Amino acid sequence: ESDTASEISFQCNKHKKSPSVGSHSSDMASVSSVSGSVLSVYSGDFGSVDAQGTVEFALDYDEKNREFQVHVSQCKDLAVVDEKKGRSDPYVKTYLLPDKARMGKRKTSVKKRTVNPIYNEVLRYKIEKMVLLIQKLNLSVWHNDPLGRNSFLGEIEVDLASWDWSNRKLNWYPLKPRSLSAVNGVDHRGVMNLSIKYVPPGSLGPKNPPSGEVHIWVKDVKDLLQLRPSGVDSFVKCYVLPDTSKKSYQKTRVIKRDTNPVFNHTIVYDGFHTEDLKDACVELTVWDHEKLTNHFLGGIRLGLGTGLSYGISVDWMDSTQEEVAFWQEMMSAPNEWIEGWLPLRSL
């Protein structure tokens, strides 16, 4: 069924589990991770003001230093957030899309009590020109609230592939409302084709298997984020949470230069009791492999999504309705492969 099979043990009691590595465990090398949650471009937006006004900026690429530069000059006629005091405290924030987590956020200083802020600041990204040309620049203006209840004031999105790089002058651009895709929370990162099954203890004969097993067959992924013109060098890694130790870590091989990689890789976790299925969560994440670091592309979490694991509140037990339904179908059909396509998401 697959070109590689990995096996790892899963042993639980009521409050914790401690894994022991099976004889067929594969490469345990650690990989870098994105710390914290991958937040939306629009996270923290509590305002309801209409976008208005303009922003003046210029774009440039420094070939010598391989640096993308966003020169944010000023804004004019921004919306007033605090009507009673007639004030806004605006700042400008930028992301490179589609993978905002990879390149990160840049932002200017906050200008107090003005709807016509002057910044004259340069926001910088260390990035190769060829990679930059498959990105979009999202530049948005926000009112800064001391309690973190920031308000969206407007944005502009620039397709860098079609940008006139000979134009280094400061120009004015109208601020627009949030795009429909952003308002609806669309964050397409691709879809994963996989099968899972649960084999209860003793279901294949006396003491066979001696403990329950969860089989995970990662088949392929479609429409991954393209971080380079040549595609991505992707691999999938797997944990059965709550364990995040190196002993529970399994991964596929790397598929190079392909946004539709075929992995055909099976992982088997044993040591399961049937009651563990309601408290455990299979986390599958897809990564772009590079020499110095690996970049998160998207993932899924298969579990009941209750927010609890062995009676403890955990943030990773957050499966979507589709992921919960997939896990429940596996629980209700022992010894049967359950196949499906699941969308990758930020975790």
Automatic annotation (TrEMBL):
Amino acid composition bias (Polar residues), ranges on this chain: 1-12
GO molecular function: neurexin family protein binding
PANTHER family: BITESIZE, ISOFORM I, SYNAPTOTAGMIN LIKE 2
Gene: Sytl2_0
Entry-linked InterPro entries: C2_dom, C2_domain_sf, SYTL1-5_C2B
Main localization, broad class: membrane
GO biological process: exocytosis
Protein name: Synaptotagmin-like protein 2
One cellular component term from this protein's GO annotations in UniProt: plasma membrane
SUPFAM superfamilies in UniProt: C2 domain (Calcium/lipid-binding domain, CaLB) (SSF49562)
Protein's cellular compartments: Cell membrane
Keyword annotations of the record: Cell membrane, Exocytosis, Membrane, Repeat
Region of interest (Disordered), residue spans: 1-27
